Amino acid sequence: MRIYLSKAIQIKGKDWKIACDSTNSNYYPVVFYSHAHSDHIPRKLPKTDIITSKITQLLMRNFTSNFEEPTYHESYSQNNVHFKQKSSGHIVGSTALVIESSEGKVIYTGDVSIRDKGFLEPFKPEKCDSLIIESTFGTPGYVFPEYDETIKQTKEQISYYIEKNIPVVLMGYALGKAQMLYHSFSELSETIVMHGANYKINSLLMDENVAGSIPAIAYVDAKETELLEKKHDWILYTPLKSGRDAFFSYLKKKFNAKLFAFSGWCISPNYKFRMAVDYGVPISDHADFKELIEICEKCDPNQIYTIYGDNVRFAAELRKLGFNAHPLSKQTLLDSYF
Ligand SMILES: [Zn+2]
Questions:
Q1: Cα(285) to centroid(ligand 1), Å
Q2: Does the structure show a pLDDT above 60 at 102?
Q3: What are residue 274's phi and psi, to 5 degrees?
């Protein structure tokens, strides 16, 4: 079996081949899409066999255009090779791929998290021969504080303002981070408003009763009915942008709104100032460094390929701990030929 990078991450066995999270529209006989973040899917989907979850399929249909309708599978078998999905705990609909064949067992994590956030099933590591794992926070130092405690403290801060009739703006990526925020904080106010992409994606997920979606008012409607002027205890969800952005300056000036940014990068003390927000909350939909190591230990693979983020550094850190780990790069492709 060969695992290599050539325009896309590819896994090739004796008489089978699959591409993972290909962002180009090339034809591959079978493609696995782990989740619908834009750095994991192409703009145009080729007509081919696609393994993905029902929710990712729904999102991809909205985010991409098709040459012709592909054939979707939740699991797939070919020549005694079995492709199965399991939750990767990253965002709504995200899955990891488990491939079992006579050549061994491979797990491709895509983006991954093992934290229990209350509405998503976390990734559960299992023994495998080869592990292909993401490296977003694959640098020591990127270790987040305990999730439940962070949510509890943030709830207290938000409640403090809501009770004083000061509105809050909770900023996080509209797909993934936003659902964590809706799940954790929406009970704190009766007036939930969503801006642009947040409203659009939430409506799509609401239609399918996906956990993490909630009833909300579109910002354009709230503006038209002057709801934001009438009530002052609202929560507005928006994508994460700089607090210096004209829209956020307007919200601060007009409503004295407090800005909360949610990102794993908030563990860097400068982040809050760089983003010009009142609070920076370090929660992420990715595993932190300690959790990435925990996944590797529990999967106990013979070889690890690191992908996405600083994968060269992460592979080096894993080798220090005794793992047989290499960054998956063009170089890996050459290595496997020679
Ligand atoms: Zn992602």
A1: 8
A2: yes
A3: -60, -40
Question: CB of 310 within 8 A of CB of 139?
Answer: yes
137 has pLDDT over 80: yes
Output the CA 35–ligand 1 centroid distance in Å: 7
Residue 129: count other Cβ atoms within 10 Å of its Cβ: 17
Residue 311's identity, in one-letter code, is N
Q: What is the pLDDT of residue 332?
A: 55
52 CA distance to ligand 1 centroid (A)?
Answer: 14
Q: Which CATH class is domain 2-141+286-337?
A: alpha beta
Token readout for 101 is 């064949």
Average pLDDT over residues 139-152: 95
Distance 57 CA to ligand 1 centre (A): 15
The rounded Å distance from CA 303 to ligand 1 centre is 23
Cα–Cα distance for residue pair 14/17, rounded to 1 Å: 8
DSSP β-ladder status, 104-108 and 130-135: parallel
Tell me: the pLDDT tens digits for 269-288?
Answer: 899 999 999 999 999 999 99
Domain 147-281: CATH architecture, name and number where available: 3-Layer(aba) Sandwich (3.40)
User: Residue written as tokens 């000036």?
Assistant: 253
**Model confidence, pTM:** 0.93
At 228, give phi and psi (nearest 5°): -70, -25
Q: How far is CA 46 from the centre of its chain?
A: 23
| Phi, psi of 181, rounded to the nearest 5 degrees | -70, -45
pLDDT, tens only, 92-101: 999 999 999 9
Higher pLDDT, 184 or 269: 184
Query: Crossing angle, helix 177-185 and helix 196-207, to 10 degrees?
Result: 80
Give strand ranges (E) for 242-331: 258-262, 279-281, 303-309, 325-327
Task: Give the residue extent of every domain in the chain.
Answer: 2-141+286-337, 147-281
Q: What is the dihedral of CA 91, 240, 132, 110, to 10 degrees?
A: 30
Task: Report how far ligand 1's centroid is from the alpha carbon of 162 (Å).
Answer: 31
